[in-house]
Amino acid sequence: MMGNYKTGKYYLAFSYGVIGILFYLLSVYTPLMADDFSFAYMYDRNGANISSPIMNLYDIVISQYNHYFVSNGRTPVQFIEQLFAGLLGRDSFNLFNALIFLLFLWVSASFIGQKKNRHYIVSTLFLLFWFLLPVPGETLLWMSGSVCYLWASCFVLLFLYFFFKIDTMDIPAWGYPVLFFAGVFAGWVHEGLTVGVSGCLFLYFCFHRRKFQGNVVPLTLGFWCGTLLVFSSPGIWMRGMSSFDLMSFIMLRVRFALYIKMFWILIFILLYLYIRKRDLFKEILKKNAILLGIAFFEFLFGCLIGLQSIRQTFFVELFSIILIVKYFVDYGELFYKYKIYFLLTVLCLFIPDYACSLNACMKNYELYQSVFKEYRNSGDGVIPTDYKRNSTWFSTHEMNRFVHPYFFTHNAHYYLNCYLPYYIRKDRLIVLPQIAYEQLYLNGSFCRPENRTSSIEGDFYTIPGTDFYVMPLNRNDSKDYESMNVSYKFNMDSINIPWYIKPIRSYIKRLNPNSNLPYGSAITKLKDRLGNYYLLIDKPYATDLGVKVVEIEFIPNK
Q: Is the pLDDT of residue 1 over 50?
C-alpha cells in the first residue's frame, strides 16, 4: 500500500515536471505584444507616457496610481505586468508564468481531493484546461492577458483554498492583519472574477451567519475590500460608460451566454440529477455550495456586463470545469473504471494538437522577431512581412488558439503599430505584405491597370491578400488625409453566405454590416523609395464576406 502511494507521488511529480516544461516552451515562443509595450512606460493621467520608461519600483507605484484612474483597477496584477515589462523582461516572465500555471493546476486539483488518485486528476485537469479554457493564447501566454486571467485566477483560487481550511488553523490575533491584507490582494486582482466571488460569499454568510467568525472574518473582509477597490476604479467606469446603444447592449449579453460551453454542461448535469437523483443533487449542493455559487455569480456578472472579449468567459468556464471534474471523481464510477482509457484517448488528441500549437507559436514568434529586427534597421519605418491574415465567417483572424490573433498592419495608426515605436523609440511603423512592399514601396509598379478596383469610382488599386486600397497622390497635394474619416458604401447584393450559415446570420453581427460605414484613423500616407506618395486606405471587414465597396468618401474630421 505504501509502495503504491510512493509510486503515485513519483508519477505526480513527473506529471508536474512534464506539464511545466511543455507550458514553458509555449511561453518562451510568445513574444511581447500589444499592451506589453505600453506597460514598459509610466502611466500618467493621459495613459502611457513614452518619455517616462519604468526605471525602478517607485516608478511602478506612481504609474499604477495613475493607471487606476485612467484604465482599470487591477492594480496588483498590473503591478506585476509593469514589473516584468519595465524591469525584469519577458525571459524572466516565462519562468514565473510556468510556475504560476503549475500552482494554478495544483490549487485547482486541491478542490477535488482524492489524494491517492491525484496524478490522474492533475493530468485530467490539465488536458481539460488545454482544450476547454477560452483563448489560451490571450489568457495563459500573452503577458498582459496572463497576469489578468491566469495569475488572477491562481490568487483567487489560493484565497478560496485557505478560506475552506482556515478555521482549522491556529492563527494568533497578531496574524489577522496579514490575513486581511492577503484578502485585499486577492480581491483586488480582477473585477470580472472577484465581484462574483464576493457576491457568492456575501450571500453564503447571509444564510450561515454563525460561520462568520474567527479566522475567516479578516480574510473575507479583506477580500470584500479588495473587490470594492477594483470595482470602484474610475478607469473601469469611464471605459464601460463611454457609449450606449440598446441593441448592442442586448446582443453583448446574449453573446456572453452563447460563447460559454462548460457552464451549460454543468447546468445539464445538475438538471439531470435534480430530475433523476434528487438525493444526490442535494448532497452535491451541500458539499459544493460555494463553488457552485461562484460559477452562477460569474455567469450572472458576465451577462450583466456583456461580452466585449471572449477572454471574459475564462472565469465561469474555469469554475465549471473544476466542478464537473469534481462531480465525476466523487460520484462517477466510470471515471475510476475507465480512467486509463480516457487519459490515453485524450492524450492521443493532445500530442498532435500540442505539436501544432507549438509550431504556430514558433512561427508567430519568428514573425514578431523579424518585424523587430527589420524595424530597428529601417530608415523610414516601412518594412515587409510574410504574415497572411485568414478571415472566417465568424472572425477576421483564423489562427491557432494559443497565438494572439492580431499582428502589425499597414495602418500606422493601428494600436499595435503605435505601441512598438514607443518601445523602440523610432518613428511610425508601416508593415506591408512582401509583394506589396516590392511593387508599391520599392519600384512603384503597384498602380497598374490590372490592379485597379473596378467596382469603386475613382483611382483605387488593390491585390488579393492585402487589407487596403491604394490611391496615388499628386506630389503637390497638401491635404491632411490622415486626419480625415473614411465613409464606405457597399453593394450588399454581392455578399455570398453559405446555406448552413444563413439560419444563424441574424445572430452574428459580423454578417450584418451596414450599407454605409464610417471609419476613423483608416488612412495612412506612404512615401515610396522613388519619392511618390500614396494613401493606404483600410478595407472594411465586410469585404471578407464578399461585399463589394462601390464608393469611398473622405470626410474632414470636425
A: no
Q: What is the pLDDT of residues 68-109, one digit of tens each?
A: 888 888 999 999 999 998 899 899 999 999 999 999 999 999
Distance CA 316, CA 259 (A): 11
Give the residue from 461, 464, 405 showing the smallest Cα distance to 433.
464
pLDDT of residue 496: 66
Q: Which amino acid is at 19?
A: I
Percent of the chain with pLDDT over 70: 84
Instruction: Using alpha carbons, select from 437, 331, 441, 340 the residue that is nearest to residue 387.
Output: 437
The pair phi, psi for residue 517, each rounded to 5°, is -125, 130
- Outline where 111-215 has alpha helix (H): 118-132, 136, 143-146, 152-165, 176-187, 191-207
pTM: 0.85
Give dist(CA 265, CA 273) in Å, integer.
Answer: 12
| Residue given cell 491635404 in the structure block | 479
Angle between helices 289-305 and 278-287 (to 10 degrees): 80
CB 407 within 8 A of CB 416: yes
Of the candidates 167, 172, 160, the one whose C-alpha atom is nearest the C-alpha of residue 196 is 160
3-state helix, strand, coil in the chain (%, to 5): 65, 10, 25
Rg from Cα positions in the chain: 26
Residue 217 and residue 194: Cα distance in Å, rounded? 17
Classify 544 as helix, strand or coil: helix
pLDDT one-digit tens code per residue, 316-343: 999 999 999 998 887 766 666 667 777 7
Amino acid at 205: F
pLDDT at site 124: 86
Cα of 51 vs its chain's centroid, Å: 28
CB 488 within 8 A of CB 517: yes
Give the H or E element holding residue 526. Answer: strand 523-527
Phi and psi at 312, nearest 5°, equal -65, -20
**Rounded to the nearest 10 degrees, how much is the dihedral formed by the CA atoms of 335, 339, 344, 348?**
20
In the DSSP assignment, the letter for residue 340 is: H
Mean pLDDT, the chain, integer = 83
Question: pLDDT at position 162, please?
Answer: 92
pLDDT digit string (tens) for 278-322? 898 898 888 899 999 999 999 888 888 766 778 888 999 999 999
